[in-house]
Amino acid sequence: xxxxxxxxxxxxxxxxxxxxxxxxxxxxxxxxxxxxxxxxxxxxxxxxxxxxxxxxxxxxxxxxxxxxxxxxxxxxxxxxxxxxxxxxxxxxxxxxxxxxxxxxxxxxxxxxxxxxxxxxxxxxxxxxxxxxxxxxxxxxxxxxxxxxxxxxxxxxxxxxxxxxxxxxxxxxxxxxxxxxxxxxxxxxxxxxxxxxxxxxxxxxxxxxxxxxxxxxxxxxxxxxxxxxxxxxxxxxxxx
Amino acid sequence: xxxxxxxxxxxxxxxxxxxxxxxxxxxxxxxxxxxxxxxxxxxxxxxxxxxxxxxxxxxxxxxxxxxxxxxxxxxxxxxxxxxxxxxxxxxxxxxxxxxxxxxxxxxxxxxxxxxxxxxxxxxxxxxxxxxxxxxxxxxxxxxxxxxxxxxxxxxxxxxxxxxxxxxxxxxxxxxxxxxxxxxxxxxxxxxxxxxxxxxxxxxxxxxxxxxxxxxxxxxxxxxxxxxxxxxxxxxxxxx
Lengths: 239, 239
Fold this sequence. Notes:
The structure is a homodimer of 239-residue chains. With 239 residues, chain A is mainly α.
């Protein structure tokens, strides 16, 4: 970024914050559009999400480069350094959210011509709505340095995990009932998992906001509501 | 880390390198053991992998804390700063590898009592062998600052992706043939996906080694061999 050579430290920080907000906007739209593409069976919309990912990748590279350059050039002290490290972390999480929305959209394209159990699509949509609210709230918390809101997002992730586990069980049941739906159900399974992982990235961002606001790293284990990896059979919810 | 207040910058770097190597060793063992637990149907071994993850998480927190503290305290210039940023990145990838090996082990426990198609278990084992070799090579490349070896790892990931795609197709076929195997096959599917994602983290580390050795970020898209998200049906390999 040669154009920044003469800028001040505050200008560098402003530039970085602006780009993080831009990344946030792009990743929110990618998540919303990938879900809408699923619900509406809109392959063209899914393709536009796939195409949008390159922009997010480019933004992340710019942010990381400028943040490292700023650290090298300005030699910031504790609080400012924390802000720069946080910028790098948040950009990495947003980039991963974009990757997951892109992968989701590829799967929407793959199953566009197949039967999709509506009950499950609605379940995935509901999960995505929750994750979108989480992403919006954590980006607001980041901009406002609002530790209370960040902790709230961090706590709420277990609802998403629990919903994912119930969708997982239902998908298994559905596949067993009619093997012809296995291909589309498998894609739905990974698609739901992608959205659950986007939820995990919003909790990572919440942890970064907490670190930014307090200087302390959250070290307690987050409450886990996703027990699907322990699920032995769909009829055995206690496992 | 109050005990480091009087240490030199080189001592800080040595300490960080030592801990990265330790994290590398723990994550290699977790990956190897989770796969062995699958092949041997050894739930006790799988439980030991699940238990080992807390150690990796703790190491990552220590590394990140010490790296940030070192940046703040030593105000390093370009090359040293690059090393510290790299340490933070590599630690994050190794921590994620541990999470994935832990999730794999939970799935091994879940399916331990069920029929497991041997051909698929062998396919997963083969994929894990490739990923273990990648992880070993990229950790060596990191220690030796060997850019050529890092680029080699980075290129080789497409073999793992291709193998994952073929396992994915075979698992779908297997589920369609006999719906009673859907639960175990679904876990195998996520398990294979976890190992493929560990492969992605080894390429991330390869990119970091390249950045460390050259100061330049790899910006070209890595060759992608995993086309499973575009797979429409197991009998349609052209899609």
